[in-house]
Design brief:
Strand 8, helix 9 and strand 9 form a beta-alpha-beta unit. This protein folds into three domains: about 80 residues, Arc Repressor Mutant, subunit A (Orthogonal Bundle), CATH 1.10.10; about 240 residues, Aspartate Aminotransferase, domain 2 (3-Layer(aba) Sandwich); about 110 residues, Aspartate Aminotransferase, domain 1 (Alpha-Beta Complex). The protein is α/β, with parallel strands linked by helices. Helix 7 packs across helix 10. The longest helix has 24 residues. The radius of gyration is 30 Å and the shape is globular. The strands form five sheets. The protein has a five-stranded mixed β-sheet, sandwiched between helices. It contains 15 helices and 16 strands.
Length: about 475
């Protein structure tokens, strides 16, 4: 009964009765005071602790009101029988894997985050925000940011951007998930996606209760002729993930014509369009009443900021706004105002210029290192974004697993395929690692590839075929 016998701290800022409450509560939760245990009388415990009887009476009364103690007239105070012992509390752990060398395709250069510039914008937002701004926020996002975003999207992405149809959201996934739930509520049952395509698209669609319809992709992007009878399609036209293809001019025209003819909706995932020197304009600019343009800061700045935007057709804006109002999914108002200041001062564009140069150098380093690994062959695509796609010999899943054991994080192409089959592939990101780390990562990857059963068999066959008789 250590909590009962230990002294209380008369010099503490914490009142004496609260100190006693905490000790008793912790001992009961830990099982040191078992259910049914009789506690000393208020007079006896007060004398033992050197406090007034009122301190003990107040502590006992509070714990009884919480259900920890049972107090009955004429009977000893006891630990309540219903209290269950709690397991020892373990340190909080992350569900996210950690790698010494992270080659996953969605990770930007987090060490390059412009912390000083962002902090300046946060401070400016706090100083300038009127008190009313901190009340219940506009579910579309603060008007100042929507105005700035509309101007930015029109200038940088060639979008037909009206601030009344810009909705701020907590990143692409938050906005897209809300849209999928609305579609389900309107009676939609199927959504088409690129195959291969970013696997969280599929997860969000399925979570909303909709069927995923895979549509093949080739070197010109989505095969519009294979859309069939769907009425909603998700595309990455500026830089298809994970093949790196850019939706061709002919396919863009065909997709817009398809949407008009079928009164269909195109969801444009504009995830990394500004990380290329050649940036095709947003598809939304061609058909603003048929396209929802969704973008975020995840690749442009950092995924942890959880800030994104949706540029909606006029007929869809109110539905999206209603969903935002119910879920309060617009994000932190101060962060929104900070982003507005960040954009207005041109900090995002300065950051992107630095990153484009840095990513180009890292891409070149990765490609040069991979040339020394014949089992991995990079597909030719325009230089852009944060990743390359490579075909590989050997068992794809085994390579990914062996690389992870060696501290190298990467993704297999199979993760992003919606239909099984096809040769093995690796989606290799270069955004997070500096050049020396990229070279070391490829060394470790080389060992993982060559230990793969399929690659080893091919090497043995090649050696046998080339051996002299």
């Amino acid at each position: 009964m250590s909590a009962l016998g230990g002294p209380v701290d008369h010099d503490s800022d914490l009142p004496l009765h609260e100190q006693l409450e905490r000790r008793l509560r912790e001992d009961i939760q830990a099982g040191r005071l078992a259910p049914g245990t009789a506690l000393p009388s208020t007079r006896g415990l007060a004398a033992a602790l050197g406090v007034s009887r009122g301190v003990v009476t107040e502590a006992y009364g509070q714990l009884a009101s919480e259900g920890y103690l049972s107090i009955r007239q004429g009977a000893p105070v006891r630990v309540a029988a219903a209290v269950q012992r709690q397991r020892p509390r373990e340190p909080a752990r992350s569900l996210l894997p950690a790698f010494a060398y992270d080659l996953r395709p969605g990770v930007p250069d987090l060490a390059g985050f412009p912390a000083d510039a962002w902090l300046r914008s946060v401070r400016a937002a706090v100083r300038a925000a009127p008190f009313a701004t901190l009340g219940e926020p506009d579910p579309r996002g603060v008007p100042e940011l929507r105005e700035t975003l509309a101007a930015q999207l029109a200038r940088v992405r060639g979008a037909a951007a009206d601030p009344e149809h810009v909705v701020v959201c907590g990143g692409f996934r938050a906005g897209f998930s809300a849209l999928c739930r609305w579609l389900r509520g309107q009676g939609a049952d199927r959504v088409a996606v690129e195959d291969p395509g970013w696997h969280p698209h599929r997860l969000a669609i399925e979570q909303a209760g909709l069927e995923v319809v895979p549509v093949p992709v080739d070197e010109q992007g989505l095969r519009v002729d294979a859309l069939g009878g769907v009425r909603v399609v998700v595309v990455t036209p500026g830089h298809q993930f994970p093949t790196g293809a850019v939706l061709s001019r002919e396919r863009r025209a065909a997709l817009v014509e398809w949407a008009a003819a079928h009164e269909a909706l195109i969801v444009e995932d504009d995830y990394d369009s500004e990380l290329s020197d050649q940036r095709p304009g947003a598809l939304q600019g061609l058909a603003p009443e048929r396209v929802v343009l969704i973008g975020s800061l995840s690749k442009r700045l950092a995924p942890g900021l959880r800030l994104g935007w949706m540029l909606s057709p006029s007929w869809l804006t109110w539905a999206i706004t209603s969903a935002q109002a119910i879920e309060a999914a617009g994000g932190d108002v101060i962060a929104q105002l900070a982003l507005r200041d960040f954009l207005e001062r041109g900090e995002l564009e300065r950051h992107l210029r630095r990153m484009r140069s840095r990513y180009a150098a890292r891409r070149a380093t990765l490609l040069e290192a991979l040339r020394r690994l014949p089992e991995v062959r990079v597909r030719e695509t325009p230089p852009a974004g944060l990743f390359v796609l490579a075909d590989c010999d050997g068992d794809e899943a085994a390579i990914v697993a062996r690389a992870a054991q060696a501290g190298v994080g990467l993704e297999g192409l199979g993760l992003h395929r919606f239909e099984p089959g096809g040769s093995g592939g690796l989606v290799l990101g270069y955004g997070a690692l500096a050049e020396p780390a990229l070279e070391r990562a490829v060394e470790l990857l080389s060992a993982a590839v060559r230990r793969s059963p399929g690659a080893a068999a091919r090497s043995s066959s090649a050696a046998a075929a080339g051996a002299p008789e």
